[in-house]
Amino acid sequence: MSDMTFDGMTVLMTGASGGFGKSATRMFAERGARLVLSDVNETALKAHAEALQADGFEVVTITGSVADEAHCQATVDLAMETFGRLDVAINNAGMSHNPGKVHEVDSARAQDTIQINLMGVFYGMKHQIPAMLAGHQADQQTRSILNLASLAGIGGAPTMSMYAAAKHGVVGLTKSAALEYARKGLRINCLCPSFARTPIVTEGLLDGSDEDAEKEKFLTRGIPMRRLAEPEEITQSMLWICDPKNSFMTGQAVALDGGTSAMGR
Asked: Of 163, 174, 187, 235, which residue is the catalytic one?
């Protein structure tokens, strides 16, 4: 990690004020990156950006939902207008739905889950890729896109069917795009973490009650390490995947799951 540098590079992050986004963007900034941050939560995004700017980092922000294609285009436009280049794009924004069997899942919530988790990645890539292709043509430097999928994107997830369906879509989209642009200067990968100590878990699946210890034990029962991942354990891998020196890696769905996928699920 210590020798990774993103000096002079522009990094775009969606879902930038959440668990993974907040941790990763600071790590990128500490290694020289200029940041373009997007999030639907204006208050949290502003607070995160101000904390980064107070430490001397270059940051611009834009508020909106990745479910809105116009917002995704505007985020890329902001990067180009402000910094003149886009080197790394991380499509991190996501949401979940309440646990339930397929026939119990609310249809509107299911549509939102697909729109944000899958279409949001598609909209992002649709506008990130042309900017990156033009940049590569100009300077011959490789660009990187990283999409956040999930362990639920490479295996079944009982009671989380539509979330799993969306994340499977992210994996398929990532691999297909990686093949399309492998000889055009773009590396495209996705990360598939299991449960981590982020708001989607701590505020969604846990609720701060006395029963949280038992709930956490239940969530981690299938993880050989028998614990949640910490956000930094995931985000340090985000930097490694996007590192320009990691130049032969593309089309991969990287599982960070405490050993779960090693059991051949």
From this structure: 163
